[in-house]
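Suppose you are handed only these lines of text.
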Amino acid sequence: MVCRHTIGDVDVYDAVTSRHSVRDFLDRPVDHETLTRVLTAASRAPSGGNLQPWHVYVLSGARLAELKNRIAQRVSAGDRGDALEVATYPEPLGGPYRQRLYDFGRRRYGALGIDHDDQAARARVRAGNWDCFGATTALFCYLDRDMPPQWGDAGMYLQTVMLLLRAEGLHSCPQIAWAEYHRTVAQVIAPPPQRVLYCGMSIGYSNPAAQHPEMPRAALSETVTFL
Ligand SMILES: Cc1cc2nc3c(=O)[nH]c(=O)nc-3n(C[C@H](O)[C@H](O)[C@H](O)COP(=O)(O)O)c2cc1C
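From them, the structure of the protein bound to flavin mononucleotide can be written out as follows.
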């Protein structure tokens, strides 16, 4: 007998395959009860030694509007952001990763008719990150600065959140882009100084009219070795 496991009424495989990064959300609020249910369940995510090292801040309403506004002002003034506290990618990016990053950009911007080399147009589209792509809720995950090994735990936690959101009919977009304006995020959130912003996440209802380019994955043989 095949045992299908479900999250709420959503099959786990369906939650995984229907999750994709949404970059066009409806202007529709997400209710507090739903988010509380998701975040309560997500606290079951595993972590080494059960440290549960994530510190999560959820913004909506006036607080999120203030954050969007502050960053929009910086972006429109030509401010390219804060020095990163943690590099997003190693420099240089080698192996197959450089090609995968290139393919990602080609698909993401190509779907909008933007040429790969049109940096100005790409920057305009990227700025949608700091408007949460229209989403009315965003989550910010911080870690203690001296705990880099725990970043894997935070990744598992965030994926658990994203899958549970699917069970609620919600979508998400994880966003490291917030780290580029981490000082402004910190001004609005006011986390303790020992915390570093790992990743943000927009949360909401996907615009059904939006086109989302599919991001293919490497062949299993490229990433998995059965011995
Ligand atoms: C840690 C992390 C950070 C990401 N940061 C961003 C971001 O800043 N902006 C964005 O639009 N997408 C971001 N993404 C989404 C990835 O581009 C996306 O997951 C990848 O291209 C695969 O596409 P899919 O999520 O639609 O399956 C991020 C994903 C992860 C896991």
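What can we learn from it? The chain is about 35% helix and 15% strand. The first strand starts at residue 6 and ends at 7.
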